[in-house]
Amino acid sequence: MEGYKPGKECALCRGRCCREKGCSLSPEDMKKELKKSIRQKDIACLPENELSERILVMLKDPEGLYAIDHFSTESGPFFYLRMRHKCYTFVGIDAIGECVALTEEGCTLPEERRPMGGRFLESNEKMQCVQHYTREMMREDWKPYQKILSYIFEEYERKFQEDGTFDRCDAAYFDWMKSQREKNR
User: Fold this and answer.
1) By three-state DSSP, how is residue 100 classified?
2) What predicted TM-score, i.e. pTM, was given to this entire model?
3) Nearest Cα to Cα of residue 147 among 78, 45, 65
4) Distance between CA 47 and CA 54 in Å, rounded?
5) Whole-angstrom Cα distance, residue 128 to residue 13?
6) Which of 36, 99, 100, 162 could join 22 via S-S bond, C-beta 3.0 to 4.6 A?
7) What DSSP state is assigned to residue 84?
8) To which H or E segment does residue 70 belong?
9) Per 3-state DSSP, what percentage of the chain is helix, strand, and coil (rounded to 5)?
């Protein structure tokens, strides 16, 4: 595995990083997931509209592992994929929430399927993890996908605002957090 293996600190803090935000994917992570549903092996050969459709199908998958999110840059929002948050949809408007793959036993994904942001998160004894998949690296990696990701994000963000999806997700997440607190008493 390229990156860092989870240290014993992760079990001690119960995945604090994973409880705050789902980790970022790299385009290579996305391509690995897309190859599972595409017969041809070379994703780069797909026309832009077909790649966009394949990404959307992956995001809408009932397993619900991934979301589009963004961070601010001097030139506007910069889009990338990350792990979805529990109770939320595939459009990330508030990048805080527990990763859908986190359980009491840790990450449900085997090491070979963990996204770059998880693989390049280095734990330490001070319980302050260091992220080695930086925003600069993400900007370089995700630059070719900005048109596709921004289109999907903007289309569904508008739709989910209008139909109340985001409000329902927030309510479900707060109910889930309440149930977790009650369970841990």
Assistant:
1) coil
2) 0.89
3) 78
4) 11
5) 10
6) 99
7) P
8) strand 66-73
9) 50, 15, 35
